[in-house]
């Protein structure tokens, strides 16, 4: 018996690999045949890279007793081993280029036949679109080579090896390799063949590689097309009457491509051997006057960082999931994507071209873990690694160069600085001068065409906008973007509107990209969605991997709804003096002709009349004051608002007619303050005090019921289950209020009873609310009066001692024995907090208690509704003076605080209701600034009232 122990030296080799074809454009031929090799593959997992010899690659090998896995996929999500999550720490000792001996290695085997009509002539190429992290490939026993670069394509010439039937494709995949040092992104480590495997027929005379150059001259309105092709041929674009030879330029009048108006022209590249469909978008990207301009205009990026994610299949995404991402983005007014932190599946870029999104295409490169050793031995500053870096740059640029949506090439993410990055930038600038180069890690902008940062605080962003940030000469000449900001972890991000205001105020600020699109929760039988640590990882970063604007199942979070409102392409501002609304087109390219406008007049939140509003098709940047109709005559008195909406005038590729793009509201008559004339006197007897509809405990002054409705535990509440943003990131220790609050003991406040007093019309209960071991406290007085039917509670709070922290919340909480349906008049329909309330629309809303909950993957404070005038719940009607924040849930704040996963929360018998006078802001301190000072809930004297009655 022969036994060959294969050499696995390539695993730790810093070179890009061997045997693969040079990179080229990714395209689907119209007529050349292809065979998808996706599907079920035989699979064997070994603990080390060299545990098994390579006889499995030989024809005739019997893999009948092997397991099976689905390709594309990750074996750790298919029952073989488990995923590992770290943010920036390498999950193995840092000793480049060495990797651990324990190196899970998956042998994959697939036997396939060629279709009957597979042409006998020509060549063939075997393409892998993504394999993590290192693969060695054999076809019919012949070793084709090996490669690294997980999120990059690799092709092998295989025509000479193919047989009509029984082809044996063997792929050995190692989880860890030298390449892992270059792929230290903040995400799950997920080995496997996770993108498509395809066999492509290459007829004689087929196109190899080609580069579509399609520019737009905004002065003449003409586009110039030239397709450079390795193989000569002709290019036709019938709609433009273009029919030219490859390499030849042609200039014609065109409609340009922009993210707002993604005009594509169908064309064909015809070589002797095949026809390749082209989707041509004419646009020109330049750096001019210190600004990023497309087609002559500065653009404002309203972007998001997108990792590829699916809660079941990980980074193996099907086309429909990719489309869902794009549709969701478009429907939420997002106009740009950074493909953090690697080139996405190529089909995603087709969708960006088609639906219209500006793209920063990022190279698969991150060496963040070297920060732990002050960036010593960082591969990007070590010439031995430069060929691998250049290979990665080339594989990205060559694969994706024909997408009009891509305006920036990004060198990678968080890789420090070094000569290797400079080499990449030089190569890219030379290969594709028609786009700009991005990289955040180099604040001196040595290699980049934009000054890019992440998580810069508002005040610094403002300084940068004013050009007062200093920096190198080169940097001072460059525009600024935040390639990451507003960390969407858990409840938040707060402060979006404040950032947007800055972006719109200063020309140099060209917008930003929220971190990030989706929570990378993994569907799990016990936890619902698992995060770091749930698979027993020794080293992990917990739920830092769940920081998206959509939940793992792609349901929009309140953060996305807020972002949609903050970045809406039309601003609608009412004039409280009445009569008009100011409409501003905030787009960069499109006029308003694609939108209809509608008005509604609301009294006490109910629409009493509505109609359409005629708005001129304003050009980008233009505003108009549009007259509203006369307010409905003889309408009922009360609080009155105009709500004006901008709606899709017709079905679009991404939304149906009537889809709400933007809205604005203006209050023209204020709400009358609820008034209760104290006329019923409290009466004491039987250990009870009665006052109007209410019953109290005579000894404690605690409310027991209102009308027939039992009430328990009504008292002051200052605690909230700290959010990820309250808890903050570890490097921000002096302002992590979640931590400071807990240290102070705000989660275990004691309520001392100082007196229950009946004086005339009122029942007064005096208390002091304070944490053990501290001298600070809140003197709290509850004053109750009634007019016989309704009950009014006035709470007065006076801080005592030296309060050095804000309060999490300030209000009362109470328990109701049963409640399901909730109706309210105030902000809605979704969650809102002081710095996340832009999208909260005043109206009449209803929900169930369960639907009020926001399903953050790690449970935390959620679900508040803002500006609530009144709420009806559990048989009570509660009206506020002033308006209040309302929250209700079937568990206590303490239970919410203790839960690690949603599955830890079990509904109890009581519905706990919080009526808050104030909430502390949210911020995005889990990786960024905390709430701005104006959203602080300071410990200051406060007084607020609620009028309680039984709901009619
Ligand atoms: C950035 C990084 C992202 C992610 C984010 C925090 O530093 O580029 O990949 O880690 O922080 O969630």
Automatic annotation (TrEMBL):
<dbReference type="InterPro" id="IPR023230">
    <property type="entry name" value="Glyco_hydro_2_CS"/>
</dbReference>
<comment type="similarity">
    <text>Belongs to the glycosyl hydrolase 2 family.</text>
</comment>
<dbReference type="Pfam" id="PF02837">
    <property type="entry name" value="Glyco_hydro_2_N"/>
</dbReference>
<feature type="domain" description="Beta galactosidase small chain/">
    <location>
        <begin position="690"/>
        <end position="949"/>
    </location>
</feature>
<dbReference type="InterPro" id="IPR004199">
    <property type="entry name" value="B-gal_small/dom_5"/>
</dbReference>
<dbReference type="InterPro" id="IPR006103">
    <property type="entry name" value="Glyco_hydro_2_cat"/>
</dbReference>
<dbReference type="Pfam" id="PF16353">
    <property type="entry name" value="LacZ_4"/>
</dbReference>
<dbReference type="InterPro" id="IPR008979">
    <property type="entry name" value="Galactose-bd-like_sf"/>
</dbReference>
<dbReference type="Pfam" id="PF02836">
    <property type="entry name" value="Glyco_hydro_2_C"/>
</dbReference>
<dbReference type="InterPro" id="IPR013783">
    <property type="entry name" value="Ig-like_fold"/>
</dbReference>
<dbReference type="InterPro" id="IPR032312">
    <property type="entry name" value="LacZ_4"/>
</dbReference>
<dbReference type="InterPro" id="IPR036156">
    <property type="entry name" value="Beta-gal/glucu_dom_sf"/>
</dbReference>
<dbReference type="InterPro" id="IPR050347">
    <property type="entry name" value="Bact_Beta-galactosidase"/>
</dbReference>
<protein>
    <recommendedName>
        <fullName>Beta-galactosidase</fullName>
        <ecNumber>3.2.1.23</ecNumber>
    </recommendedName>
</protein>
<keyword id="KW-0378">Hydrolase</keyword>
<dbReference type="InterPro" id="IPR014718">
    <property type="entry name" value="GH-type_carb-bd"/>
</dbReference>
<dbReference type="InterPro" id="IPR006104">
    <property type="entry name" value="Glyco_hydro_2_N"/>
</dbReference>
<dbReference type="InterPro" id="IPR011013">
    <property type="entry name" value="Gal_mutarotase_sf_dom"/>
</dbReference>
<dbReference type="InterPro" id="IPR017853">
    <property type="entry name" value="GH"/>
</dbReference>
<dbReference type="InterPro" id="IPR023232">
    <property type="entry name" value="Glyco_hydro_2_AS"/>
</dbReference>
<dbReference type="Pfam" id="PF02929">
    <property type="entry name" value="Bgal_small_N"/>
</dbReference>
<keyword id="KW-0326">Glycosidase</keyword>
<dbReference type="GO" id="GO:0016787">
    <property type="term" value="F:hydrolase activity"/>
</dbReference>
<dbReference type="InterPro" id="IPR006101">
    <property type="entry name" value="Glyco_hydro_2"/>
</dbReference>
């Amino acid at each position: 018996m022969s036994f060959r122990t294969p050499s696995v030296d390539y695993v730790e080799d810093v070179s890009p690999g061997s045997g693969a074809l040079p990179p080229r454009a990714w395209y689907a031929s119209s007529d050349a045949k292809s065979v998808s090799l996706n599907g079920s593959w035989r699979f064997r997992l070994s603990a080390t890279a060299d545990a098994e010899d390579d006889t499995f690659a030989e024809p005739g090998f019997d893999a009948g007793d092997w397991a099976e896995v689905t390709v594309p996929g990750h074996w750790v999500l298919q029952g073989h081993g488990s995923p590992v999550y770290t943010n920036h720490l390498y999950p193995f000792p840092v000793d480049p280029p060495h990797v651990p001996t324990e190196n899970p290695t998956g042998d994959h085997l697939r036997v396939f036949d060629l279709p009957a009509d597979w042409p006998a002539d020509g060549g063939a190429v075997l393409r892998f679109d993504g394999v993590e992290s290192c693969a060695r490939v054999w076809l019919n026993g012949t070793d084709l080579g090996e490669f690294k670069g997980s999120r990059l394509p690799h092709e092998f010439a295989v025509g000479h090896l193919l047989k009509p039937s029984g082809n044996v494709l063997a792929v050995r995949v190692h989880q860890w390799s030298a390449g892992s040092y270059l792929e230290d992104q903040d995400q799950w480590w997920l080995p496997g063949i996770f993108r498509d495997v395809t066999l492509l027929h290459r007829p004689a005379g087929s196109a190899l590689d080609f580069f579509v150059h399609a520019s737009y001259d905004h002065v003449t309105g003409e586009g110039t097309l030239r397709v450079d092709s390795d193989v000569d041929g002709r290019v036709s674009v019938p709609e433009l009457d273009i029919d030219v030879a490859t390499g030849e330029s042609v200039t014609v009048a065109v409609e340009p491509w922009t993210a707002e108006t993604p005009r594509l022209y169908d064309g064909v590249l015809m070589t002797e051997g095949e026809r390749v469909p082209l989707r041509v978008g004419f646009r020109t990207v330049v750096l001019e006057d210190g600004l990023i301009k497309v087609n002559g205009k500065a653009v404002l990026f309203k972007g998001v960082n997108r990792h590829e994610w699916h809660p079941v299949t990980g980074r193996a995404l099907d086309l429909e999931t990719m489309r869902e991402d794009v549709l969701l983005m478009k429907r939420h007014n997002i106009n740009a994507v950074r493909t953090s932190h690697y080139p996405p599946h190529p089909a995603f870029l087709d969708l960006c071209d088609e639906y219209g999104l500006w793209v920063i295409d990022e190279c698969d490169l991150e060496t963040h873990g070297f920060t732990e050793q002050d960036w010593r031995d960082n591969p990007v500053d070590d010439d031995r690694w430069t060929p691998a870096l250049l290979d990665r740059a080339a594989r990205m640029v060559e694969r994706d160069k024909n997408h009009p949506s891509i305006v920036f090439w990004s060198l990678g993410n968080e890789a420090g600085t070094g000569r290797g990055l400079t080499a990449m930038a030089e190569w890219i600038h030379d290969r594709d001068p028609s786009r700009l180069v991005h990289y955040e890690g180099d604040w001196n902008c040595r290699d980049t065409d934009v000054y890019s940062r992440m998580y810069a605080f508002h005040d610094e962003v403002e300084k940068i906008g004013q050009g007062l940030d200093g920096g190198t000469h080169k940097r001072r000449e460059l525009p600024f973007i935040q390639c990451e900001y507003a960390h969407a972890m858990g409840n938040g991000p707060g402060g979006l509107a404040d950032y947007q205001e800055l972006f719109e105020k200063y020309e140099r600020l060209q917008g930003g990209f929220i971190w990030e699109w989706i929570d990378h929760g993994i569907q799990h039988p016990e936890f619902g969605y698992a995060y770091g640590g749930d698979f027993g990882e020794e080293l992990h970063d917990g739920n830092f991997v769940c920081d998206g604007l959509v939940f793992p199942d792609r349901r929009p979070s309140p953060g996305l709804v807020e972002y949609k409102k903050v970045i809406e392409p039309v601003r609608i501002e009412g004039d409280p003096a009445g009569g008009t609304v100011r409409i501003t087109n905030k787009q960069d390219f499109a006029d308003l002709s694609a939108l209809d406008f509608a008005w509604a007049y609301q009294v006490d939140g109910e629409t009493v009349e509505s109609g359409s509003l005629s708005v001129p098709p304003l050009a980008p940047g233009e505003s108009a004051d549009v007259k509203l109709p006369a307010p409905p005559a003889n309408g009922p008195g009360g609080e009155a608002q105009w709500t004006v909406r901008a709606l899709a005038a017709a079905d679009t590729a991404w939304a149906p007619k009537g889809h709400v793009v933007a809205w604005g509201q203006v209050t023209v008559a204020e709400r009358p303050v609820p008034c209760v004339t104290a006329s019923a006197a409290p009466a004491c007897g039987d250990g009870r005090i009665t006052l109007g509809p209410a019953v109290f405990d005579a000894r404690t002054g605690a409310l027991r019921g209102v009308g027939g409705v039992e009430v328990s535990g009504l008292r002051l509440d200052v605690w909230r289950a700290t959010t990820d943003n309250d808890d903050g990131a570890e490097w921000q220790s002096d302002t992590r209020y979640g931590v400071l609050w807990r240290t102070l003991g705000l989660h275990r406040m004691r309520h001392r009873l100082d007196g229950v007093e009946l004086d005339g019309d009122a029942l007064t209960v005096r208390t002091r609310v304070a944490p053990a071991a501290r001298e600070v406290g809140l003197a709290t007085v509850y004053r109750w009066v009634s007019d016989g039917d309704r009950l009014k509670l006035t709470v007065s709070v006076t801080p005592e001692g030296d309060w050095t922290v804000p309060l999490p919340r300030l209000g009362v909480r109470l328990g109701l024995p049963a409640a399901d349906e909730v109706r309210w008049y105030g902000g809605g329909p979704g969650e809102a907090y002081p710095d996340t309330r832009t999208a909260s629309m005043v109206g009449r809303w209803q929900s169930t208690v369960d639907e009020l909950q926001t399903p953050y993957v790690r449970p935390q404070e959620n679900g508040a509704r803002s500006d609530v005038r009144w709420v009806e719940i559990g048989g009570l009607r509660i009206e506020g003076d002033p308006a209040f924040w309302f929250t209700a849930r079937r568990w206590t704040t303490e239970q919410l605080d203790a839960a690690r996963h949603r599955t830890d929360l079990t509904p109890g018998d009581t519905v706990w209701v919080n009526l808050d006078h104030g909430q502390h802001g949210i911020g995005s301190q889990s990786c960024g600034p905390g709430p701005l000072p104006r959203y602080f809930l300071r410990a200051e004297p406060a007084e607020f009232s609620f009028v309680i009655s039984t709901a009619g």
